[in-house]
Structures are given as C-alpha cells and as structure tokens.
Design a protein that fits this description.
There is one protein chain. The chain is of the alpha/beta class. It has two domains: 115 residues, Rossmann fold, CATH 3.40.50; 184 residues, NAD(P)-binding Rossmann-like Domain (Rossmann fold). It has eleven helices and 13 strands. The protein is globular, with a radius of gyration of 22 Å.
Amino acid sequence: MRIVVLDAYTTNPGDLDWGPVEALGELAVYDRTPDEAIVARAAGAEAVLTNKTHLSAATLAALPGLRYVGVLATGVNVVDLSAAAVAGITVTNVPGYSTPGVAQAVFALVLELTNQTGPLSTSARAGRWQACDDFCYWDGELVELEGLTLGIVGYGAIGRRVAGIARALGMRVVAASRSRAAGTSDEGVEFISLDDLFRTADVVSLHCPLTPETKQLVNAARLASMKPSAYLVNTARGALVDEHALADTLAAGRIAGAGLDVLTQEPPRAGSPLLTAPNCVITPHVAWATRKARARLIAAAAANLAAFVQGQPQNVVA
C-alpha cells in the first residue's frame, strides 16, 4: 500500500516518529502540500493522511486509486465527505487525542484575561515595579473566577473536561448542547438554551464543531446579549465567530475580553480585524499541539489505517 502524508509538519516537525504509519506500507511524507501539487503527490496512493490540506470533490475525482483518507484531526471539514462517499473512499478522523491539552489551553486564555499575567510580567521586567511607590501594582481589575458562571457551547469530551476544571475552580457551569435538553442537569452541569447561555455566562467557551448550522454562531446579536463583564473563549474553529462583529464589540468595550486560539483564516491575513482588537488574547492554533497529544494523534491515525487494512474500519466519518 502506498501512503502519502500531505502536510506532516505541524503534526510532527521532527520530534516524533512516523514509524507506526510506515509499518503499514510504502510511506511518502511531505511537510506541506500546495493545492496544485496534491494530485501529483497523491497519485497512485491508496491512502492519504491530511490535517489541513483540503481534499475537494475535484481532487478526489482525480485520484481513482484512492481508497482511504485519514484526517489528522477531529474536525473533518477539510474533506468533501459527500464526494468521498460517492467514490467509495473511507474517511476517518481522530477524536479525543487533544482533550487534556485543549482544556488546559482554555484556562490559559481565561487566566491570561482575568489575571493579566503577560502584560504585568512585561511591565515589571521593563522597570515599572522598580519605579513603583508601593509594593505592588495592577492595571484594571483582577478577576476571581470562583462564583462566576462558565457557559460551554458543545458538551463533548473537551466540554466535559473543561467543565471539570471549572468546577474545581469554584465556578458554576452551564452548557448548551444539541444532545441535552434545556432544563436538565448532569454531573453538576446545568443545560440551558444557547441564547440563555450567552445572556447569563461570565465566560463563554466554544467547543462545538464547525457546520453550516454553527458557522458564525457567535454573531452581533449574541455578542450584544452578553454581560459587559463577560469573556469569550474560542479553542474550536475560527469561523464559529463573526470576527468583524467581535472586533467591533471589543473596540466598543461591550464585553470584557476574548481569548482565541483559532481564527477564520489561518494564518490570518494582514488587516485581520482581531489582530488589533483591544482586550483580545490570540494564540496561533496551538491548543491541540502538546507533544503528548501529537504522539497520540500519530498512534491513533496509524491504528485507524491498520483497522481499515484489516477490513474493520474505525472512527469512520464517511
């Protein structure tokens, strides 16, 4: 079996081993693949692994020997699933590999916003503490999380892990989920409607997949319904948020801040509205990328491919 990894670098920039995948066939690994090179590089391959390289209907049609696509992620919006199904191509994903790291990253963003760790460290190292008339100083309000309400949008594995950390910090947790009816509760989490969540939460954290129904879920109307003291955190998919509406909301001071690990366009283009928005902490889509998580990702991708070869595919999405 010929196996091609189209965009290996972010998964494994050299600190891990593709051995578990290589054991399954003849392996070709490319750090990055531009759209115009996909067909040439994947020609003759029965299996392709991709993270963010898009496999469109036209691309899949140009690869008649392709039988398997393994997505090196949980989200599968990089593959035209309908076209894959028509072509008889099995598509799998890797759920759950990054849950601990993403949950940790959520609170890294929340604590950066509420404790101002980065700006205070920068100013202290620049000499402001030395010049201070008092033994301490701060800018704005330092916010205590205990007693505040965390609203989780999407209650899958990551949402549940985030809820557990929030409860350990003394927060009340509410959630909106398609699979849980408003008015019910589970494991100390109250399920409420999406609109009620935006109105009542002190911190809103997004953990739902990107679908046509969830695109720009966070729009101007929902941002306007949030408390002026509330924070928005997004470690899921950038397009869940109307970025121009969020930038306008932050510029007007209508919410307290935002912590974002994802943007609609990645990397962002010059002029991306959130890059210059006030009270906005941005990290470059790294919540998933701890070394342990990436090692789990490669191992799971290899297990998915091995299961397919054995005629018992797992984690199938198309």
